[in-house]
């Protein structure tokens, strides 16, 4: 039993390392090859835990090899379009100029139901609203609507305001977040003075956000 | 870029470790096969005392080798070899007819163990 426990602990640490090595990606954003590798790694990881007769290395070696190859292929994909095509495929245009390209749909086995579902999930219930649509390499549909169906933008309304980054968290659960403070050029003195004005202190703050123009909001701990 | 360097380092380390493992297994299996041959030689010449000593040495070497090999090889394959090697000394002392067959079995299994670690097409496919 202790062998299984220790193996599970080792593999847990290894999997965290492997996932960190592969980088951050949402499951829905995984490329097909990345998804296959993720499933493969999770399957391999179970083998030496289930079967103590197997050396742990028979689990560790393929896991780190697959993750490393994935990282190397991603890097090569950044350098070479050809490698990118090979590992990720290419996006396929299925609606061009408002016209459905049935041949392209057949080539990627994308059904009418898939198309309707993807459009509905983006709030489009009438295909005639679509000017241009692409099935991305992740299988997600990207849609560009016809001009008359697109939302009104600030530019359309000729509203002018300076672009700025959104507010970010400088105090999280009573603790300062130095990297955000540095990015927003917020000093701890400024935070102390601000909190003094609000008659509180850092350890009593549940969350404090600050925008680049130094507007802030504070949520106190209960 | 640090991820790529880490990944390349890991792959390099695994390749280096695999090559190292092959050399370790080759040298250890050769040594054990020589020990088995030694037992056979003494036994065939009727020198039971030396054959028993050689069998003891074979058993001792195997204990060390088994631990090292358990890092690379499935447990059941090593168990089979352990069973076979544990029979050698009793067979020598009892002058059992099956000793040569058992020693041949041990040599063969050791050779197969080494062969299974080689990155040859018949192991890969």
Quickly give the structural class of chain A.
alpha+beta
Helix content of chain B: over 70%
Number of helices of chain A: 8
SSE topology string of chain B: HHHHH
Look at the structure and give the mean pLDDT of chain A: 89
> The CATH topology of chain B, please?
Four Helix Bundle (Hemerythrin (Met), subunit A)
Query: Mean pLDDT across all residues of chain B, rounded?
Result: 88
Beta strands of chain A, count:
8
If strands are numbered along the chain, what order do they take across the biggest sheet of chain A? 2-1-3-4
Return residue spans of chain A where pLDDT drops below 50 for at least 5 consecutive residues.
Answer: none
- Tally of DSSP helical segments of chain B: 5
Note the main sheet of chain B. none
Radius of gyration of chain A: 25 Å
Structural classification of chain B: mainly alpha
Oligomer category: heterodimer
Q: Which features does this protein show?
A:
heterodimer; A: 222 residues; alpha+beta; CRO Repressor; 4-stranded antiparallel β-sheet; 8 helices; flat; B: 125 residues; mainly alpha; 0% strand
Walk me through what this model shows.
The complex is a heterodimer of chains A (222) and B (125). Chain A is 46% helix and 16% strand. Chain A has 222 residues and is an alpha+beta fold. Chain A folds into three domains: 2-86, no CATH class; 92-149, 2-Layer Sandwich (CRO Repressor), CATH 3.30.240.20; 168-220, CRO Repressor. In chain A, the strands form two sheets. Chain A has a four-stranded antiparallel beta sheet with strand order 2-1-3-4. In chain A, strands 6-5-7-8 form a four-stranded antiparallel beta sheet. Chain B has one domain (2-124): Four Helix Bundle (Hemerythrin (Met), subunit A). Helices cover 86% and strands 0% of the residues of chain B. The longest helix of chain B is centred in the N-terminal third of the chain and has 43 residues, at 2-44. The two termini of chain B are 34 Å apart. Chains A and B meet through helix 3 of A and helix 1 of B.
